């Protein structure tokens, strides 16, 4: 098939980190969060070193501008899954440095526009979000359908963060409406499965971690003065009922609700100085002043990290 690139881009810096032309047609979009309120130029700059072994097709900077890092014809190295990256357009979106990795309105609006543009160019009328890993990865999309997948399904990561994860149903709805396809319910009318509601945030975080440890994609929202732990955001109630049954089988008290809220941050899990130092050596944190700023913003002791880097390289 023929491949094109988006006309919405305002900056191009092509990364050498890709596997050449795809071996599968494009039928997925995988939005990511890139930690730090970076510009679209800086997002591309993160992927210029071959030693980093990571890249994306597009970056959306904190001001909403879009950059091209890997042409759509080529497979980026973004989702910790060869199979997913072969068929997905991957998009890194500027976010906050801590969970829920919130994105500002400009970034989210550009993500909607970019997803709409991608779908239009490949003849898609619907963008689908099932909020279920197994269903999404086993679904064979029709010729006019595009599916959303997420990085956390393929690696032990929060990406795309709970802020965006809680809005993927809304993203799918708005893009599908832009495409003129059959619209799905609004974000407020999506079906979610709730597994706890707490006044005390620490208790909510404990439940969040229990549900995650059991293998479920979950997130925390704040609504009506309560911290609520929810799983999924489904268009069809039958899909929510199926997830509720799975959660109950795992001994969680669960019920279906259409009420959501604002994504709430959970206590970030910091990596060890040794882990961060090895990431620095790999090139994940940039160089010079940029590295220092990013490490400091993420809450790490720059001098301690640098000392460990020197020791490892010594």
Automatic annotation (TrEMBL):
<dbReference type="Pfam" id="PF08230">
    <property type="entry name" value="CW_7"/>
</dbReference>
<dbReference type="InterPro" id="IPR002502">
    <property type="entry name" value="Amidase_domain"/>
</dbReference>
<dbReference type="GO" id="GO:0042834">
    <property type="term" value="F:peptidoglycan binding"/>
</dbReference>
<dbReference type="InterPro" id="IPR036680">
    <property type="entry name" value="SPOR-like_sf"/>
</dbReference>
<dbReference type="InterPro" id="IPR036505">
    <property type="entry name" value="Amidase/PGRP_sf"/>
</dbReference>
<dbReference type="Pfam" id="PF05036">
    <property type="entry name" value="SPOR"/>
</dbReference>
<dbReference type="GO" id="GO:0071555">
    <property type="term" value="P:cell wall organization"/>
</dbReference>
<keyword id="KW-0378">Hydrolase</keyword>
<dbReference type="Pfam" id="PF01510">
    <property type="entry name" value="Amidase_2"/>
</dbReference>
<dbReference type="GO" id="GO:0008745">
    <property type="term" value="F:N-acetylmuramoyl-L-alanine amidase activity"/>
</dbReference>
<keyword id="KW-0961">Cell wall biogenesis/degradation</keyword>
<dbReference type="GO" id="GO:0051301">
    <property type="term" value="P:cell division"/>
</dbReference>
<feature type="domain" description="SPOR">
    <location>
        <begin position="185"/>
        <end position="259"/>
    </location>
</feature>
<dbReference type="InterPro" id="IPR051206">
    <property type="entry name" value="NAMLAA_amidase_2"/>
</dbReference>
<keyword id="KW-0131">Cell cycle</keyword>
<protein>
    <recommendedName>
        <fullName>N-acetylmuramoyl-L-alanine amidase</fullName>
        <ecNumber>3.5.1.28</ecNumber>
    </recommendedName>
</protein>
<dbReference type="GO" id="GO:0009253">
    <property type="term" value="P:peptidoglycan catabolic process"/>
</dbReference>
<dbReference type="InterPro" id="IPR013168">
    <property type="entry name" value="Cpl_7_lyso_C"/>
</dbReference>
<dbReference type="InterPro" id="IPR007730">
    <property type="entry name" value="SPOR-like_dom"/>
</dbReference>
<keyword id="KW-0132">Cell division</keyword>
<dbReference type="GO" id="GO:0009254">
    <property type="term" value="P:peptidoglycan turnover"/>
</dbReference>
């Amino acid at each position: 098939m023929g491949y094109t690139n988006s006309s919405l881009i305002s900056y191009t810096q092509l990364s050498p980190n890709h596997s050449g032309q795809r071996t599968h047609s494009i039928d997925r979009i995988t939005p990511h969060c890139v930690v730090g309120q970076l510009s679209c130029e800086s997002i591309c700059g993160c992927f210029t070193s071959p030693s980093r072994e990571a890249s994306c097709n597009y970056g959306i900077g904190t001001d909403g501008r879009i950059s091209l890092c890997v042409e759509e014809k080529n497979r980026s190295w973004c989702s910790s899954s060869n199979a997913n990256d072969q068929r997905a357009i991957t998009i890194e979106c500027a976010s906050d440095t801590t969970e829920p990795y919130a994105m500002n309105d400009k970034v989210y609006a550009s993500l909607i526009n970019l997803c709409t543009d991608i779908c239009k160019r490949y003849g898609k009328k619907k963008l689908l979000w099932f909020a279920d890993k197994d269903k999404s990865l086993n679904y064979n999309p029709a010729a006019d359908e595009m599916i959303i997948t997420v990085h956390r399904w393929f690696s032990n990561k929060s990406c795309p963060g709970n802020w965006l994860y809680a809005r993927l149903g809304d993203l799918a709805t708005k893009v599908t409406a832009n495409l003129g396809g059959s619209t799905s319910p609004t974000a407020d009318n999506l079906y979610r499965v709730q597994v706890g509601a707490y006044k005390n945030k620490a208790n909510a975080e404990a439940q969040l971690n229990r549900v995650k440890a059991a293998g479920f994609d979950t997130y925390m929202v704040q609504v009506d003065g309560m911290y609520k732990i929810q799983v999924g955001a489904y268009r069809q109630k039958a899909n929510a009922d199926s997830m509720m049954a799975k959660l109950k089988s795992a001994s969680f008290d669960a019920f279906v609700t259409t009420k959501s809220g604002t994504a709430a941050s959970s206590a970030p899990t910091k990596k060890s100085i040794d882990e961060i130092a090895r990431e620095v050596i790999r090139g994940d944190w940039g160089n010079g002043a940029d590295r220092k700023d990013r490490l400091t913003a993420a809450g790490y002791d720059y001098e301690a990290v640098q000392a460990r880097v020197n020791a490892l390289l010594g």
